[in-house]
Amino acid sequence: MSRIYLLHKPYRMLSQFTDAEGRATLADIIKVPDIYPAGRLDYDSEGLLLLSDDGELIHRISHPRHKQPKIYRVQVEGQPSEAALQALRKGVTLKDGPTLPARVRRLDESGLAERQPPLCSKRHPDTCWLELTISEGRNRQVRRMTAHIGHPTLRLVRIAIGNWRLDGLAPGQWQSQTLHAPVQKKPLPGKGPHTARSRRRR
Q1: CB environment 7-26: b (16+ within 10 A), e (fewer)
Q2: Please, are residues 37 and 25 in contact by the beta-carbon 8 Å criterion?
Q3: How far is CA 65 from CA 59, 135, 137, 194, in A?
Q4: Model-level pTM greater than 0.85?
Q5: Could you give the residue numbers annotated as active site?
Q6: Averaged confidence pLDDT in the chain
Q7: pLDDT, tens digit (0-9, with 9 covering 90-100), for 7-37
């Protein structure tokens, strides 16, 4: 059987287990042997990160060919017009080419706990929450998409990857699930011992 770990990556944490500069890493919140992330989140982004010790599963989740839909809740500067949101729905052209159409909706509220440290309301008095669903995984893609329509991203939280959701996990918490499929022997991306601890850390 394969095991997958759902982790809520906090703000200002790297999506890796080591860092020569001493920044916060996944090793600070999950210590399970020989697991690796399927994809990543930026240091200043938050939300769902999937990890596994099954190389084939990691490949299926993270490879662009499989187009796993990813859902983000995004706090942006200002109030995007309907025309701006429609541009995201049609696809916008970034420096590395056009994006696929995104699903976008405006939210009355995020449904998320306040970030720590919180966004400064004095510096950003006028903001809006959006929910975006994309099936690509380019570097900082959502941030570049909202900047393209003139509304820079101030906070970004990934709430779902495929059928896996962030529901019930606070920042720094994680849980494991067993998938009823045989573990594949595809090589994992590197080695790194991590000492097992609890199934969930708060």
Answers
A1: bbbbbebbbebeeeeeebeb
A2: no
A3: 10, 10, 10, 30
A4: yes
A5: 42
A6: 90
A7: 999 999 999 999 999 999 999 999 999 999 9
